[in-house]
Design a protein that fits this description.
Layout (H helix, E strand, L loop, with lengths): L1 E5 L13 E5 L7 H17 L2 E8 L2 H5 L12 H9 L5 E6 L2 H4 L3 H10 L3 E7 L12 H7 L5 E5 L3 E2 L2 E2 L2 H9 L3 H8 L3 E8 L4 H5 L4 E5 L9 E9 L2 E10 L13 E6 L10 E12 L6 H22 L1
Parallel strand pairs: 1-4, 2-3, 2-5, 3-4, 5-6
Antiparallel strand pairs: 7-8, 9-10, 9-14, 10-13, 11-12, 11-14, 12-13
Length: about 325
């Protein structure tokens, strides 16, 4: 997959541009609704005998409109989004910097600069996609403003159990710890990517060593609790049980930031400094405070059994 970084004004064209069938959107999470848009663009590319492409934006518009102070909770950080797109068989990815210069373009200017100049021959987007200053442009207007230079396809609302599949809905599910339904909407387990860093090493003293995973900035974590997970490091995947939270048995829950700690089953090795991924498979229980360390250890043993059952059923 070829990756092109575009910025207005300045770098908004590519050399030796070929014709493209383009899927356009922010695509946070790349859930089943987004996949429908991208797959439709791929099908149109095959039909027309041209290359397939995705256009997305970075950072999220909320970051800009919030004065740079808004915390944007991404479902997929940018490197993960690129990784997922690369698995979908897309020929090219256009990454457009979302800043005030871009946000001030009229719908017609956006089309003239970012679509016509890039040899786009067909544009596919969701029914609610908007573009141009204050989101004034709609897909209906895009067809009118194309001047016949490219065609358009609008993908209708994609639903599950009669509810729209959306990034907002997925964030809510994660805030509730419902990683199972999140997987249904994504078409894959929810994934957290991060680096293993030094922790308190308390798990090792309890007989359950853990990898303390520092996740990417501004990405959503599931609700505090204990989960069955799959843990990937150095291209090898292991099963594990994970606690995300503040460890209230040992800390003041009101003054502690949530951390991700994974007890990796059947693993013996040094993980510090390694990039890892955590796939959230099933919720076991909410995080809770125990009256003694012995009660905590007893519960961890039960959590491991629950994790094994969940992961066995998920294979």
């Amino acid at each position: 997959m070829d990756i092109y970084k575009l910025h207005y004004p300045g770098s908004v064209t590519i050399e030796n541009a070929e014709d493209f069938s383009l899927a356009i959107g922010f695509f946070d999470g790349l859930h089943k609704g987004h996949q429908a848009v991208i797959n439709a663009a791929k099908e149109k590319a095959n039909e027309l005998g041209i290359r397939s492409a995705v256009m997305t934006f970075n950072p999220h518009p909320s970051h800009l409109f919030g004065g740079g102070e808004n915390k944007v909770d991404y479902i997929t950080d940018f490197p993960e989004k690129i990784r997922l797109l690369s698995t979908m068989g897309i020929d090219a990815l256009f990454v457009v910097t979302f800043d005030w210069a871009l946000a001030s373009l009229s719908p017609k200017q956006f089309i003239d600069i970012f679509l016509k100049e890039l040899h786009i021959k067909h544009v596919t987007a969701g029914y609610d996609f908007t573009f141009g200053s204050k989101g004034a442009g709609t897909m209906e207007q895009m067809a009118d403003l194309s001047d016949g230079e490219f065609g358009t396809t609008v993908i209708k609302k994609v639903t599950d159990n009669e509810a729209k599949i959306s990034s907002t809905r997925i964030r809510k599910l994660l805030s509730e710890g419902n990683v199972e339904e999140t997987e249904v909407l994504l078409g894959r387990p929810y994934r957290t990517v991060g680096i293993v860093v030094d922790g308190e090493k308390r798990g090792r003293l309890l007989g359950f060593p853990t990898a303390n995973v520092l996740s990417a900035n501004n990405t959503v974590l599931p609700a505090n609790g204990v989960y069955a997970v799959r843990f990937t490091v150095d291209e090898k995947t292991y099963e594990g049980v994970c606690n995300v939270g503040v460890k209230p048995t040992f800390h003041d829950a009101d003054n502690t930031q949530a951390v991700v700690e994974v007890h990796v089953l059947d693993f013996d090795g040094d993980l510090y400094g390694k990039e890892v991924s955590v796939d959230w498979i099933g919720h076991i229980r909410d995080e809770q405070k125990f009256d003694s360390v012995d009660l905590l250890v007893e519960q961890i043993v039960n959590d491991k059994k629950s994790a094994n059952e969940i992961l066995s059923a998920h294979r």
